[in-house]
Write a structure and sequence with these properties.
Number of strands: 0
Low-confidence stretches: none
Shape: elongated
CATH superfamily of the largest domain: Hypothetical protein, domain 2
Strand content: under 5%
């Protein structure tokens, strides 16, 4: 089956993205906290794992009030970090991760969050997807971040035929025009969160006329 017209799809997603108000509000809230500062952005990314962004942002804001620099976070007692981030899931593990991340930034990376994916992935809580999303958003690198949404939707669009996000990333580099690499995760994740989840709401999707996915769910909520 023919793949989606990716130029048309990205044009539509770019136009439609602002109307997903929840996502727009969440993105703004997260940006207000991390301000694209690499240290803050990285810590927020680790904290947000398996946690909604609208829960992460207020906790991160409170954390950065007492730990505005990696030096300060690295020197904080673990129990104090745990107390601040307790509202988040897996807070004990995340407290260890972000304290160690701060230590590595200070002691191993010269006080600067690295822009090398291999170095980033040495930091606890930073896998390949997290590293790529971070690099694209903060350092404006042309990389593709692949999570469950990007993996699922790329297959529904027949851009790839893969079984894992890692395979999807490799194949997308072959078929996706480079001009879309940086924004692909942002728009496709927004689409996945709004309408194209595990049970797609094709009846609401702005891409339904050009999407090759079958069978489409066009009958509305069941």
């Amino acid at each position: 089956m023919k793949a989606i017209d990716i130029d048309r799809a990205m044009e539509i997603l770019r136009r439609e993205f602002p109307r997903w108000s929840r996502e727009k509000a969440t993105v703004k809230m997260m940006m207000d906290v991390h301000r694209f500062d690499p240290y803050r952005h990285l810590i927020m990314t680790i904290l947000s794992a398996q946690t909604r962004d609208d829960m992460t942002a207020p906790v991160a804001r409170k954390l950065f009030q007492v730990a505005p620099t990696p030096e300060k976070l690295a020197s904080m007692p673990l129990k104090e970090i745990e107390k601040i981030i307790r509202p988040l899931g897996f807070y004990r593990k995340k407290a260890r991760y972000i304290k160690e991340a701060a230590r590595m930034i200070v002691e191993e990376f010269g006080g600067k969050v690295p822009d090398d994916p291999r170095k980033l992935m040495r930091i606890p809580g930073v896998g390949r997807k997290v590293a790529n999303v971070f690099l694209s958003h903060v350092y404006k690198k042309d990389v593709i971040g692949v999570d469950v949404h990007v993996h699922r939707i790329s297959n529904r669009w027949n851009l790839v035929r893969t079984r894992t996000p890692e395979q999807t990333e490799r194949e997308l580099y072959k078929v996706l025009p480079r001009k879309y690499w940086r924004d692909y995760n942002l728009y496709v994740v927004a689409l996945g969160q709004a309408v194209c989840g595990a049970k797609p709401k094709c009846y609401e999707c702005p891409l339904r006329e050009i999407c090759p996915y079958e069978p489409k769910n066009l009958n509305g909520p069941q």
